[in-house]
Design a protein that fits this description.
The protein is α/β, with parallel strands linked by helices. The chain contains 14 helices and eight strands. Strands 1, 2, 3, 4, 5, 6, 7 and 8 form an eight-stranded mixed sheet that branches. Strand 1, helix 5 and strand 2 form a beta-alpha-beta unit. Helix 3 packs across helix 5 and helix 7 packs across helix 10.
C-alpha cells in the first residue's frame, strides 16, 4: 500500500486514494477518475444529475457552481445551457481551478473560473439565476456567512440547490463520522452539521421556502445507488440472512411498496454523516 501523503492537501489526499487498489469503486463513485471529461460525462448522465436537472427545468440564464472542485457540475450546468461561473479556491490541476479550465477547454464549453471562497463571493447582488453547491456547506468555515452570500448573489425568483450535505443526529456523532471518512485523516477538511443547523442557516439567510430532500428518498442523496440497485442490495442482504431470494424480490418488487418501506426506514436512520439535500428559493420582488 502506498504511504499516506505527508502534506495535508485535498489534492494529495485524492492522489493517495486513486493509488489504492481497494478504493477504485469509491474513486469512480466520487468522480475522481481520469480522464476528467469522461468522469464529467458520467456525472451528467447519472440519476443524481438528472434529478437536479428536473429541479432546474424551465430555468435559464446564469449559474454559479460554488465549491466546483473538478468541475463536473459546472460541466453539467453548461451542457444544460447555463452561462456558468465556477467558484473554486483550490488552484489544483487535479481537483481544482486548473482542472475546471482544462475540462471546459476540452469540452468546448464556456466556464468562467473564479478562485475564491463561498464566504466572500466576489459578485454583485442578484447576479445569478441559479446557485448550485454540491457537497459544499459541510466544508464551510462559516456556514451562516456562506448561506447569506449565496442568497445575496441570487436573483429574485432564483433557486439555490445544496446537494449531498452530511448530517449528524447529535454533536457526539461527529467524531464517529470523521473517524469513518476515508479521507478526513489525510487532510482534515470534513465536517457535518445537525439538520436544524442547515435549515436554520438557510432560513436566516432569507431562503423561503426551503425544501429538505431526505437521504433515502431523493436520487441525489442515494447516488451511487438508484432505487433499483438499492432494492437489489436489500434483497441480497435479506437473502443472506433468510435464504428466500425469489420471495424477497416479489415482496419488494413494487416501487410503491419499496419506497414506503424506505419512508419507514428513514424514521430509524441515524447514520452519522448521512446525506441530505436542500432546495432554497428567493422570493420575487
Amino acid at each position: 500500500m502506498p504511504a499516506e501523503p505527508e502534506t495535508s492537501t485535498w489534492e494529495n489526499a485524492v492522489i493517495w486514494l486513486r493509488n489504492q487498489p481497494s478504493q477504485q469503486q469509491l474513486v469512480l463513485d466520487a468522480f475522481y477518475d481520469d480522464p476528467l471529461i469522461a468522469a464529467a460525462e458520467r456525472y451528467f448522465g447519472s440519476e443524481e444529475w438528472q434529478t437536479v436537472s428536473q429541479l432546474l427545468k424551465g430555468r435559464t440564464g446564469t449559474a454559479l457552481d460554488v465549491g466546483a472542485g473538478r468541475g463536473i457540475a459546472s460541466y453539467a450546468l453548461a451542457r444544460e445551457g447555463f452561462l456558468v461561473t465556477a467558484l473554486e479556491p483550490d488552484p489544483s490541476a487535479i481537483v481544482g481551478a486548473a482542472a475546471i479550465r482544462a475540462l471546459a477547454a476540452e469540452a468546448g464549453l464556456q466556464v468562467d473560473v473564479v478562485q475564491e471562497f463561498s464566504e466572500r463571493l466576489p459578485f454583485a447582488d442578484a447576479t445569478f439565476d441559479v446557485v448550485f453547491a454540491r457537497a459544499v456547506l459541510h466544508h464551510t468555515r462559516d456556514l451562516d456567512s456562506a448561506c447569506r452570500e449565496m442568497f445575496r448573489v441570487l436573483r429574485p425568483g432564483g433557486i439555490f440547490i445544496a446537494a449531498r450535505e452530511h448530517v449528524i443526529s447529535k454533536e457526539t456523532d461527529l467524531t464517529q463520522f470523521l473517524d469513518q471518512h476515508p479521507l478526513h485523516h489525510l487532510y482534515g477538511g470534513e465536517h457535518a452539521f445537525l439538520l436544524d443547523r442547515y435549515t436554520g442557516a438557510l432560513n436566516d439567510a432569507g431562503f423561503a421556502p426551503v425544501e429538505v430532500l431526505s437521504p433515502l428518498k431523493s436520487p441525489i442523496n442515494l447516488f451511487p445507488y438508484t432505487i433499483d440497485s438499492l432494492r437489489n442490495e436489500v434483497v441480497g442482504r435479506l437473502s443472506r440472512k433468510v435464504p428466500a431470494g425469489p420471495l424477497w424480490r416479489v415482496a419488494l418488487g413494487s416501487n410503491r411498496i419499496f419506497k414506503s418501506l424506505l419512508s419507514i426506514a428513514e424514521l430509524f436512520d441515524n447514520r452519522p454523516g448521512r446525506l441530505y439535500s436542500f432546495v432554497g428559493h428567493k422570493a420575487q420582488l
